[in-house]
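Sample entry copied in:
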Amino acid sequence: MATDKPFDRNALEQLINKRFFYAPAFGIYGGVAGLYDYGPTGCALQANILALWRNHFVLEEEMLELDTTIMTPHDVLKTSGHVDKFADWMCKDLKNGEIFRADHLVEAVLEARLQGDKDARFAQGHVIEKEVDKDDTKEPVAKKTNKKKVRVVAVALDAEVKQEYEEILAKIDNYTGPELGAIMHKYTIKSPETGNDLSEPEEFNLMFQSSIGPTGQLKGYLRPETAQGQFLNFKKLLEFNNDKMPFASASIGRSFRNEISPRSGLLRVRYVSIAFNTCIPNELVICLTILFAHSFASHSNSEFTMAEIEHFVDPLNKDHVRFDDVKDVVLNLLPASVQQAGKTDITPMTIDEAVAKGIVDNKTLGYFLARIYLFLTKLGIKKDRLRFRQHMPNEMAHYACDCWDAEIQSSYVRRRFLLICRDFFFASLGWIECVGCADRSAYDLTVHSNRTKEKLVVREQLPEPKVVERWQLEINKKVFGPKYKKQAKVLEEQLLAFSEQDLERHARELEQNDKFVVTVDGEQVEITRNEVTVQKVTVTEHGNEYALLFVCNLSYNLAHHPISPCCAVREYTPNVIEPSFGIGRILYSLIEHVWWAREDDENRNVLSFPAIVAPFKCALLPLSGHTSFVPIVRDLSYKLRRLNISSRTDDSKAAIGRRYSRNDELGIPFALTIDFQTVQDGTVTLRERDTTKQIRQSVEVVLQLLRDLSDETITWTSVLEKYPLFVAQEVDEQ
């Protein structure tokens, strides 16, 4: 099934549209970019992906599934930090107002310049001249380009500049807005279509604002994630679980993000690059790259299906009872330290070794990374095109203390340009974030508890005192109150809600810089050593003498939960490990990974979905429209339904070979052919999609085989070992 031929995006798009996996929404009205409808095949595929997800995670891990509301009040998302911090950096053309996502713009330009350098070195400095007839140029390079002829010169980059570009690209996700602005100034990055100057990068909030109720006075948002509904139900979930820890909740549902990103099918991709078969100047490469990228950019109204898990765990014990089950799973890892060094080298490593070396923070996080890998590969994602990339500090979500993305390599754009040379192709290979796995520490439960005064804690019996070390933040109120005045209360609540990881990080910053920065209501505030102290202290948690109540740090405990004699109980706020799955991205990446064409005919497309997720498990193909086949097809269809085997009947007048090909394009793994021999002796042929090999057995035998093959309890190889191949022609009608 492997092929060395270049990836043909257009052919895949035609197949997806032809077999109605998904298509642009509102098509007869011209469509709305970024919005898609799933067809019958896409719906079935998504349903099967979600069913496998439920089996793999919810049932296997005994998770507690929720279905929470899409509308979320402003106060909830203000408390969670999404109102102030859930944003991307955007910049715009200062003259015409066109908008770009800053990191994507920088990335595309530098990638294009590096490609231009590569082409220039290949040409060994030779000057190549081409003439372009403006009448033939259907997609102009820029609005100001009116010249009829273009002189093309390829020039290599200075070695030092080239290295700088490569290091910037390796760390592109780690830059702040001001840092992106500095890069744009240093390397003279302009608006690609007009050449105009660009604004400094500004934050653009990604949430859809709305209002709740007929008066419109209750401000709200369409949820950007399903997680908040799970956190707010923590108390009920803990009670439902008989107060036992650890445990996990799970939720599947729609989320909404108003993004500035390339619109490329179901993907919101991380980067674009451009490759050419001839040498052209760097400036033109940039224009071509960004002109196309920008045609897919602007405000992309994204709604998508998410499947999220919130695993609640004791912050003092992040081991996992089933870690040994996955410790030997090998993952392709790209740690933050490698990226910060300006490299993208992947290191294959067992998850046991990664945890032991401290690359992955703890066993629970490592356990879920391994389980994510097993889920994606079971779907059909290719192992050599799957990696786990650790977030760098500046790209970390505001709620996370560590985060890894499962990224799938995909080709997402392939387009012909009618510019200068008729043989240009826009090709892109990108690593697509499809699953994020974050250690959210105790952030969410803590901030919601602070805001509502509702204790979101776990109570644990203590047989004897425990001596533990914790980070402690103390506020110098004599300085703090007078300096921050009305802002002091909000700022104090945020400081006292810091997790252990936050406090440890800020302690290092105070040691190195005598200050650290926090964001309050969208404003950055510098906290100095004179205003707070952060240090590690030893605490004895007494059992029978009293309960030590703590949430994240000692200051909050002493201020809000005085110690008093009581039973042997410890109260704590659990940390959260969160795997978050983008189902649309996974679905598209899966289609690409399983797509191929038969060697004898490149027009015969095949989608080799594993049987467990294939949209339909079996095709019913009567050899012709003969009336004797009708009751047999009806009976087989009924029996397949009773066995929960989805099927699709193709009784069209097309030749049987053409119908086989049609169902191969739908990814249907098996086909039952009903012919005149079936009428005589009750046998049918069973064909497998990838090998095209067939066996012929009785209906009862074939149905049992189909059930086992669909459940993946047996393989087609084992079937061929047991039953002879069928190669004879069907019996003709007498």
